[in-house]
């Protein structure tokens, strides 16, 4: 009887299915969510520890920007044990209550002060830093044989003369938003929140339209009209790699592309109008412990025995072209490498504010940049409106 | 009857039995995860399937059941769920239960106790009981035994220790092997013992304890949290947060019912109302323009294609259907590339520099162009069908009577076409109100209004604005408000559809 066999077979299959969906929590499986494209690096860097401790590493690429959806998945019990996110999510994650304080676990002497202040919120440390990434200035050496600009005047005049002579279509290839223009914003005297020792506790003091910025705002308008920035607000990377733009604002994610394009470039900091270096935002890739983790002990053991080590920080950073958060790993880098140059600039950068209020800032701040770029408003009034709207949204007087 | 006979008779139902078993398996798993609704739903579905298909002799049920079950699962349940969420403050910072939030506040503000080094503990079980307790030597003096509920000091004489300090035996209890200890790890992870001197003791791994001083303590009796160092008291407010008299709140908060607050904030909160009004107006303008323009375009094409003078109609028809045949996600993204300012294909071909996606006006035009491109093939098809179904005699009779082509079209063809197509146009209009894909993929709703508290933009439809509030919001996800808005959206579309269909009926009456 064929049908009979089919019935028995189906019964068997469904019983097997039955069995497999019954909870199978093998002791010693650690689930980690990481940024897509980086899972192989995490697997390789944890392989030895996993083999020694008989732990199955379940490393899944589920994160990108933001908090991996943990604020919803965590309480529902659908989250991983550990996950990585940029440190500026800290405030928002703490507000959601989905991460656990790691103050007692963290070996603070391994990390520079700025990195630590990035993961500190409400006097607690909430994650283990892995790598640091920030934007920097790339100079096209075929268009500017002199190399990276010595000061702002140098950078401005080089751009203007190249644009005016028709050799370049734009001075600086960049997105016209808060993250990419933060160094220029810093240069003209603006800031987001007042900070103390790297901690942004006072969200009542918004500096989007600070006194210094009000005075210097017209500089940004001048730079826009001088074609230092592209009004259409498109990041035309090909303009830089085809030698039609002397400068570009790039991040660690751009390195592979630039190398592939085969152009000669130099990475440096962005000079400030007032002399010295203008400060960009730096982001710390951080591993957080889910409050609702099923394997808390194992996760903590992994954090202290693997993630905190110099080797791990080195391995992950070299895989994603970013600068190691661990001080010893950082000191081992070749000083002339591109990554080290990103890191050298990163050392003078400021950590992106990690307060939950930052979410509102991006909205208003980026809108102000968009209004300015599209010619809807001059830079000063655009920032003044953003500051006013932001203060209203945050309930500041 | 022999068992083999029963099996033989029923073997043709094997697939159904397999399916029912799978359903029951899923139900079991969901009930284990305490997902009550879905768990019970699958259990009841399985029972109903067995009843309707194997026991009941009535025929209609066999046809109705699958549809009804899927309707409950995919329509009624989500609608009911958003209805429930709309009355809560479910949002970023208000996702935990009250117990979870309070335990989070206390847990995250434990300070390692000064002068107390981490110390060993042992897991034991009382004879004949399955409940686990831990045994530890506290501050190098006495042995204590307990769990999260209670802790007591026990006399040294009850315990035998080997020279390494490990427990050999304890009267009335049995010690556990490392494997057995590991099976308790979930319990140990959340174990917390409050010592009489006010210190908290928590396992750090499977063998070490650490002592902590609490910075915040929770009192069940007064339902309040006390900040021990600053000596301030935090009490729950009506928005699911612990606040002190100065108005400072502790993080995180928890989820509470807020009644009609989400709905009233749509009406009263300027920050929500202002962008919402603009979004609503554009939602309607967009739907009307889209339906009218794509209908006119489709109709015009259908009239041309219907002309007997035209050759190789098939090729043209095939070309016109292409926008419908390409997956819209792909074509929308291609359009987004074409619309790029300056370097985009459109700007290059026409030698213009239009801020397609960054200027409010042009972004709306771009959205309309793409929407029309996607929907005209449908309009073309139904118009062709409707025109071809007009009896030739009527048209010929009018021509013989000497009516010019325009009059034939306006007085005969159009009314006849409208009669068949009007219900379809209403349906298209309702769908256009919910046209999420184009907006989301082409402009993301942008350019953003600079004064919108969420992130409403010039091309946002109500549905995409709701989506952004729920999942994408810069302000932090606000599921409560988004659910309230989606309910509003439902009534809006239902209202428009009902009104439209009523009008159709009166039009049929005229005919």
Describe the structure.
The complex is a heterodimer of chains A (397) and B (511). Chain A has 397 residues and is α/β, with parallel strands linked by helices. Chain A folds into two domains: 176 residues, D-Maltodextrin-Binding Protein, domain 2 (3-Layer(aba) Sandwich); 189 residues, Periplasmic binding protein-like II (D-Maltodextrin-Binding Protein, domain 2, 3-Layer(aba) Sandwich). Chain A has 16 helices and 17 strands. In chain A, helix 2 runs antiparallel to helix 12 and helix 15 runs antiparallel to helix 16. Chain A is globular. In chain A, 52% of the residues are buried. Chain B folds into three domains: 74 residues, no CATH class; 105 residues, Periplasmic binding protein-like II (Beta Barrel); 244 residues, Orthogonal Bundle (MetI-like fold). Chain B is built from 18 helices and 15 strands. The model of chain B has no long low-confidence stretch (mean pLDDT 85). Classes of the chains: A alpha/beta (397), B alpha+beta (511). The interface between A and B is large, with 63 and 66 residues.
- How large, in whole angstroms, is the Cα Rg of chain B? 35 Å
* Helix proportion of chain B: 55-70%
**Regions of chain B with pLDDT < 50 over 5+ consecutive residues?**
none
The major pleated sheet of chain A works out as: 7 strands, mixed
* β-strand amount of chain B: 5-15%
**Major sheet summary line of chain B:** 9 strands, antiparallel
Structural class of chain B: alpha+beta
Alpha plus pi helix count of chain A: 16
The count of strands of chain B amounts to 15
- Count of β-strands of chain A: 17
CATH homology-level superfamily of the largest domain in chain A:
Periplasmic binding protein-like II
Helix content of chain A: 40-55%
Apparent shape of chain A: globular
